[in-house]
Amino acid sequence: MEIKNQSGVEYWKKLVVILCLGWVAIWIYRTVLTPIYPEIQSALGDISDTQIGLIATFYFAAYCGGQIPASIVVEKMGQKLTLLCGFSLFTIGTLVIANAASINMVYAGSLLSGLGCATFFCSAYSLSGEHVPQERRAFASAIVNSGSAVGMGIGLVGSSVLVKNMDMAWNNVLYISAAIIFVMVIVFALVIKPNQAAKQATEAKADTNTATTAAEPQGTSLLKPELVAVYFLYFCTCYGYYMIVTWLPSYLQTERGFEGAAIGGASALVAMIAVPGALFFSSLADKFKAKAVKMVVTLEIAGALMLAFTVLSPNTTALMISLLVYGFLGKMALDPILISYVTERAPKVRMARALAVFNLAGMSSSIIAPPLTGLISDLTGSKAIGFYLSAGLLVAGAVFFVLINLRASKKPEVQTA
Predict the structure, then answer these.
(1) Residue 189, domain member (yes or no)
(2) 359 inside domain
(3) Most exposed: 1, 158, 163, 302, by fewest CB within 10 Å?
(4) Residue 26: what pLDDT?
């Protein structure tokens, strides 16, 4: 009996909505601090830019480090309990920052928040992988992912208006964030159903696996070639994205002459145009599943070209066209297709762990890309090489991905010969 039958026909739609809201809550937190760094520095005393930058470092280091442990907890305890524990910890971390009297308390809160958020990705997409019909899976993932763009907009605009325009104390926006996160704990508790049948099926499968491990081919592992290829491709995809998120405003200001609101407006447009791109391409991927690999490679090559054209564009109009096309074709358009690719090829009893490795591969770029691009800028006086490096990685990832998939598609023919 299929899991989705006992959950009800409409259950997967409820899941898609609440998982989208989960990303909204996470991205409100991720972006709510960045516009008010000066106010935090003023409130906490003589705090340097380097110390402020470490706030994100603590968060993302904990987020990346928590991926694999979180996936193991999902496999042992289920997605619902994992999410409840994770978002409770996320709420506590946010409250620690709201009550911080020193930068070290902010770091501690960021660490707890990162660990709490680490439970979301593997829980959310293993849930959708189990319950969303296969023919709607990529589109559903695109809807879930759109929560990140919505949350980003709310966090950036909300904290700027409340603190800078309405003179609200900086820590009050953290209390608001904590309230939103806690509401999600309640929503997860009410909506997500513990699936005892799925747990029993997993345990039975685990017993069967224990008896047949010696006979299983290497292809059933999390490191079979198709999965390794998509992990590497996702690293390359996210590298360009986090390079853009971190350094695009500075590049526009220092090297392309943008000023004032035009800097933030251009960066926000890149994020917002990604939502319709994700919905459009995920819908195509669901309709033409056999063409998914070709679609991924096409999007990656096109994204690489747009990153290069961003630097090569001779005027502001061409520059903005390049950025908007990159946003439409970039990471958010690829995320649902790649997530669907992973859930269809990963061993079912290890789906959460495969998604954790996939996300860890991508998010590791958030630790590497910003400082490496900064180093390149320090050495050369320009961030242009950083854009070219990102474009080159996209091409390398696409080539590796298509070669591995071509080899995999020929394997059945060889076995039957």
Answers:
(1) yes
(2) yes
(3) 1
(4) 95
Same domain, 45 and 168: yes
Question: In the prediction, which pLDDT does 261 show?
Answer: 57
pLDDT value at residue 195: 59
List, for the chain, all residue ranges whose pLDDT scores fall below the cut of 70.
1-9, 195-220, 260-261, 263-265, 267, 411-417
Residue 210 lies in a domain: no
Q: Do the beta carbons of residue 126 and residue 3 sit within 8 Å?
A: no
Domain boundary among the residues 204, 238, 264 is at 204
Q: Rounded to whole angstroms, how far apart are CA atoms 114 and 188?
A: 19
177 and 246 fall within a common domain: no
The domain containing residue 23 runs over which residues? 7-204
Q: What is the CATH number of the domain that holds 237?
A: 1.20.1250.20
Q: Give pLDDT, residue 416.
A: 37
